[in-house]
Amino acid sequence: MTLFSPEELDAIDQIWRAIPPDHVWTGWSANGDAPSQVTLYRTQSHWRRFPLKKTPYGFSLYDDQAREIASGTALKDLPAAVESIPGLPD
User: Fold this and answer.
1) Distance CA 44, CA 55 (A)
2) Chain Cα centroid distance, residue 88
3) Is 81:72 a contact under the CB 8 Å cutoff?
4) Residue/partner pairs of 69-72 with CB below 8 Å, 24 or more apart
5) Which of 9, 50, 65, 78 has the greatest count of CB atoms below 10 A from its CB?
6) What does the alpha-carbon distance between residue 64 and residue 51 come to, in Å, rounded to a whole number?
């Protein structure tokens, strides 16, 4: 299990705070100083939680059934990865 460092958590927070206010990524949470998973949240019309896990190659986002749905090689890719996830059906 790969853990997020405090520096990576700070980087996630800085990236999240730098995105435009109308972006679908609305927040994030983590438990502890070095969690194995971070949870990302999206807007109400796309309201779901997405577990974010660190991989040897970057990161992966998963849906509620533990299927990988987006990934990236660097934390700076998070906003685009979150945006690429399809919304809820109308």
Assistant:
1) 28
2) 17
3) yes
4) none
5) 78
6) 8
